[in-house]
Amino acid sequence: MAAQTQPAAHPATPINVWLPPVILGWVIPGGGHFLLKKTGRGALIFASVFLMFLFGLFMRGMMFTPQSGDVLTTLINYGGFVADIAAGALYLVAAMFGYSQPDVPGDVHDYGTKFLVTAGLLNILAMVDAYEIATGRKD
Amino acid sequence: MPKINLSHFEAAFLFSLFTSVVMGITSKTTDKERRDYGAYCFACFLIALFGIAWLMKLGHG
Q1: In this structure, what DSSP letter does residue A87 have?
Q2: A-chain residues within 8 Å CB-CB of B15?
Q3: Per-residue confidence (pLDDT) for residue B25, from 0 to 100
């Protein structure tokens, strides 16, 4: 019988080690990487998320708001809202300056909506990456 | 605020580029792997973009 290898258990990392990069990474895309001295990666993440969000705004993409309805409507609106918020300060600044675009038909608007949502989703990936770097699971 | 009108290709190209950069950075552990995976993702996006576009064109006759 082959011996089963157990994955090495990671010792629990204190919350004060990984929380600041994750929070900063949410507020400023790539900020967590900057805090962890990964400036090149942080700059690339910031540029990608920022430009994607900016193009989304320029294409007049729609910002999702939490709305209930049938299951699909609820899922799309709440999911989109969470993804929009995940862009951090970009979302907050746009909302603060009153950006409000109704859902209008048109391929450019539709692309814009997807750009805004994807910017947030990419920032979630970056936050997870910052968490893994802070806890020593990645370099 | 300026308003821009991108074509389908331009929008899909930019989407592919930004997404590939972040996926490359966050998915791998060494710089070479990140660069290779980012380029791989970008190539896959473009192949899918052209492939689906041709499928739709041929499907419509």
Answers
A1: T
A2: 52, 111, 114-115, 118
A3: 95
Number of H helices, E strands in chain A: 6, 0
Whether residues A44 and B6 touch (CB distance < 8 A) is answered with no
Could you tell me which chain B residue has the CA closest to the CA of A121? B19
Contact A59 B15 (CB under 8 A): no
Min Cα separation A104/chain B (Å): 15
Cβ contacts (< 8 Å) between A41 and chain B: which residues?
Answer: 25
Strands (E), chain A: none
Instruction: Residue A55: list chain B partners with CB under 8 A.
Output: 4, 6, 11, 14
**Tens-place pLDDT, residues B5-58:** 999 999 999 999 999 999 999 999 999 999 999 999 999 999 999 999 999 999
Q: Exposed (0-12), middle (13-18) or buried (19+): which is B2, by Cβ within 10 Å?
A: exposed
> Which regions of chain A are under pLDDT 70?
1-10
Amino acid identity, position B49: L
Residues of A in contact with B23 (CB under 8 A): 125
**pLDDT for the residue A6:** 61
> Distance (Å, rounded) from C-alpha A45 to C-alpha A51?
10
Q: Provide the token pair at A86.
A: 């995940």
pTM of the model: 0.90
HSE-up of residue A60 (Cα within 13 Å, Cβ side): 15
Q: What are phi and psi of A105, to 5 degrees?
A: -70, 150
